[in-house]
Every structure is written in structure tokens, then in C-alpha cells.
Specification:
There is one protein chain. The chain has helices at 7-14, 47-58, 61-69, 72-76, 89-116, 126-129, 146-187, 191-209, 220-230, 240-247, 257-262, 265-271, 281-299, 309-315, 319-322, 338-400, 423-427, and strands at residues 254-255, 307-308. By secondary structure, the protein is an all-alpha fold. Helix 2 runs antiparallel to helix 5, helix 7 (146-187) packs across helix 13 (281-299) and helix 7 crosses helix 16. A two-stranded antiparallel sheet has the order 1-2. The protein starts with 6 loop residues before the first helix and ends in a 23-residue tail after the last helix. 57% of the residues lie in helices and 1% in strands. Residues 440-450 have a biased composition (Pro residues). It is found in: Cytoplasm; Golgi apparatus, cis-Golgi network membrane; Secreted. This is Nucleobindin-1.
């Protein structure tokens, strides 16, 4: 996305939204297409909603023109949000749809959260529950208004400012967990093996520290190294303005966080190699973050998380640019204290005890379910036996009463009975058949003769 310096540019770059640049003195020039870049997740829980809103706003020429001419203060104080009333109808319609989808997603998250906590709520007040989300207006859940854009910008500003701090805290916990596991592993070894393993680990640590000198990020030595080894140019002809334009890869007039971090690759390669056992790639990414923060702190004077050409050139005039202090890497600057590690280990023990209690509760519930299953199986067998006995008694009763036996469903079953004639009856002569046309008795109306 090729906007002038502004806070919203940070959001679009962080969200990985890139588009075709607009030539303000274009004439008949065709826009230069840029290679699509990989989407970068901001880490915000509403990242997708943020990116989609920006993409839709980009499609409106009027809003994009206003954004190009707006400064950081205009974006932060909400003046830019008022321009939303002038965007085209189809843009507003699409924004309304995005907001309804986001509200629906948040409702599902709330319901899942309530279900997971076993909270029985027959009538949930979604309007009040949605108030805990600050990036949209919960009172209007159907249309995207200027207030929604203002809330989205202000909330993302605050969240992104805290994002780096959260990453540092996450890395600290990672390092403490790694040290905790190392200590627990050594505890499980006997004295001889423990001493041997401790010696091996110390040798790996010492080997990691034996790396070339790391230049201070943003110093002339560091930039000249990139100029020579990455750009392939003569270090004696180093020019800050040319350097800036070379590494403004999307040609938007600023160096964003990703473009800055790309400049530190050569320095990081001096310390970290993924092929080495002693080099931790998580530590490399933390080192990269520290380098970027150092440059932003000393160069980004307006604190918009972007480095403009003017800011960059002014930084080259500082004393620290030519004579910086030595850069201290993570191996010389621990990220936690022993007290913090002890508190972390106590927290792990508490969690472990809680997990054990839950596991024991689940085991007891499982045993109870097994016992209930056995009882149900015994009842089922007793029922089957009772059914069989009842069926047998019914058959015996029917046989005693001379009734035909009953079928499996209680229906009567008739069987053809064939009797074998006795021998006497078989040898007896057949009786003459009586003709049907002869009366069996004399007619009663004939006269009597004497």
C-alpha cells in the first residue's frame, strides 16, 4: 500500500495489504504493478476484520485521495473518519456487511466462552457483552459508521503499541522455561554425568559467544556493510539518500518495520546459524526486534512507527551515527533475573499441582463411570435372563392349555398335523358312496299302504 506517512499506513503494512501505487502526475502512464507480498498478521484478534476494512476503503478513489493527503494527526484525531460519509454506496454496503460478520463472529466467541465456563444463560444480552470489544460500536450492530472507523484506528493504535512489549514478555517466559528444563534435566543425572553435561553445555554457550563484532543497528558501519555486501556497491561511495531509496522496496517514501528489519540480516548472521546446536532461532528473532526498536527510538521522531526520508537523513547527522557504542547481544544481556526465574518456577509448580488434581479428579470420574458401566451390564444381563424365563414359562403354559406355541413376537403358530391310519382301517373295504340323487329317507308325504 503506497500512502504517504500516516498511522493508517502502519496498519495496512502490518496487515500485509498491498496495492498498485497511484502516480499523482500520471498522465497516460500505466501504474507499475508490484509483486504480491505475503500477508503479515498483526497479531490482533480482529486482524482479519482490520485488513478487510482497509481493503474495501482502498477501492474508493475519494477516500484514498484523502488518505494520501492526510497527516498522522488527522488520522489519529478522527478527522479522516468523517470522510467516510462521502464514499460510494457499494463501499458502504460492503463495510456494513463486514461489520455484521464481525459482530456475528464476536457473538460466537462469547457463546463459546460462556459454554466453556458452564455458565447457564438462557437470555444473553449481546449488546452489553459486545461492549468489551473496543474496535467497533456495539450499540449499532448493523451499519459501519464513522465512529466504527475511529474506534478501529484508536484501538489498533493502542494494541500495536503494546504488541512489542507482549512479544518481549513471551520471549522472557520462553527463556525461563528453557533454563528451568535444563536444570530439571541435570537434576535427573548422577554426579558424573551431570558434571559432563554441564561442561558440554558451557562449551556450547562459549562457542555461541565467539562471533564477530556486531555493528550497532542504524550506524554508519552497519549501513555501509549492507551497502557493500547486500547491494554490491562501493563502500567509499556510500550515500544515505540513495541507500534509503534502495531499501524503500515498495517505493512509498518511508521505511516500515519490515523494511527496517530486513537491514539487520547481515548482523544477525554473524551470531546465529540454524545449523549450529548452540544457536537458538527464537533468540535471533528477539535480537531482530531489539535492533528495530533501537532504530525506531533514535530515528522515528514523530513516533508513527515509520521512518521518512527526512527522519533518516537527520539521523545520519547525529554523533551516534558515526561513533556508536558497541551493540550488546542477548548473550551479554540476560532478559530475566534469578528472582524472576524463581517466581516462574513457582508458577509452574502451582500449575503442575493443579493439573495433577484435575487428572486425579478425571481418574476418579473414570473409575466411577466404569463401575456404573458394570452395573448397567449386570442389569442388562438380568433383564435378558428374565425375558428368557418368561418366554419359557409362557410356552409351557400354552402347551398345557393345548394352545399352539407362540412365536417370538407372541403370535400363535399353527402346525399341520398328519395322522397315520391304523392297519385295520387301512385294510377295511371302502364303504359305498351314497348317491346324492337318492333320498336318505322315504318322503313323508307318500300314502301309506297296508
Amino acid at each position: 500500500m503506497n500512502f504517504k506517512p500516516g498511522w493508517l499506513l502502519l496498519l495496512t503494512i502490518s496487515a500485509g495489504v498491498w496495492s498498485v501505487p497511484i502516480e499523482r502526475n500520471g498522465g497516460n502512464q500505466e501504474p507499475k504493478e508490484e509483486a504480491p507480498e505475503e500477508n503479515m498478521d498483526t497479531g490482533l484478534y480482529y486482524d482479519r476484520y482490520l485488513r478487510e476494512v482497509i481493503e474495501v476503503l482502498e477501492t474508493d478513489p475519494h477516500f484514498r485521495e484523502k488518505l494520501q493527503t492526510a497527516n498522522t494527526e488527522d488520522i489519529k484525531n478522527g478527522r479522516l473518519s468523517k470522510e467516510l460519509d462521502l464514499v460510494s454506496h457499494h463501499v458502504r454496503t460492503r463495510l456494513d456487511e463486514l461489520k455484521r460478520q464481525e459482530v456475528s463472529r464476536l457473538r460466537m466467541l462469547l457463546k463459546a466462552k460462556l459454554d466453556s465456563t458452564n455458565t447457564q444463560s438462557l437470555q444473553m444480552d449481546h449488546a452489553s457483552l459486545l461492549k468489551q470489544f473496543e474496535h467497533l460500536d456495539p450499540h449499532n450492530q448493523n451499519t459501519f459508521e464513522a465512529k466504527d472507523l475511529e474506534l478501529l484506528i484508536s484501538t489498533a493504535t493502542k494494541d500495536l503499541e503494546n504488541y512489542d512489549a507482549e512479544r518481549h514478555e513471551e520471549f522472557k517466559r520462553y527463556e525461563m522455561l528453557k533454563e528451568h528444563e535444563r536444570r530439571e534435566y541435570l537434576k535427573g543425572l548422577d554426579q558424573e554425568k551431570r558434571e559432563k553435561e554441564e561442561k558440554r553445555l558451557q562449551e556450547l554457550k562459549d562457542k555461541h559467544r565467539q562471533h564477530p563484532k556486531v555493528n550497532v543497528p542504524g550506524s554508519v558501519a552497519q549501513l555501509r556493510e549492507v551497502w557493500e555486501e547486500t547491494d554490491g556497491l562501493d563502500p567509499q561511495e556510500f550515500n544515505p539518500k540513495t541507500f534509503f531509496k534502495l531499501h524503500d522496496t515498495n517505493e512509498d517514501g518511508v521505511l516500515d518495520e519490515q523494511e527496517l528489519e530486513a537491514l539487520f540480516t547481515k548482523e544477525l548472521e554473524k551470531v546465529y546459524d540454524p545449523k549450529n546446536e548452540e544457536d537458538d532461532m527464537m533468540e535471533m528473532e528477539e535480537e531482530r526486534l531489539r535492533m528495530r526498536e533501537h532504530v525506531m527510538k533514535n530515528v522515528d521522531t514523530n513516533k508513527d512507527r515509520l521512518v521518512s526520508l527526512e527522519e533518516f537523513l537527520k539521523s545520519t547527522e547525529k554523533k551516534e551515527f558515526n561513533n556508536p557504542k558497541e551493540w550488546e547481544t542477548l548473550d551479554t544481556n540476560p532478559v530475566y533475573t534469578e528472582e524472576e526465574l524463581q517466581r516462574f518456577e513457582a508458577e509452574l509448580r502451582d500449575k503442575e499441582e493443579e493439573l495433577k488434581r484435575r487428572a486425579e479428579t478425571l481418574r476418579q470420574e473414570q473409575e466411577l463411570l466404569k463401575e456404573r458401566g458394570k452395573a448397567l451390564e449386570a442389569q442388562r444381563r438380568e433383564y435378558q435372563q428374565a425375558v428368557l424365563e418368561m418366554s419359557q414359562r409362557q410356552k409351557e403354559q400354552q402347551a398345557a392349555d393345548g394352545q399352539p406355541p407362540a412365536g417370538p413376537n407372541g403370535e400363535l403358530q399353527f402346525q399341520a398335523q398328519t395322522q397315520k391310519p391304523d392297519d385295520k382301517e387301512a385294510n377295511a373295504p371302502a364303504e359305498p358312496e351314497v348317491q346324492n340323487n337318492l333320498p336318505a329317507e322315504p318322503p313323508q308325504n307318500l300314502p301309506l299302504h297296508t
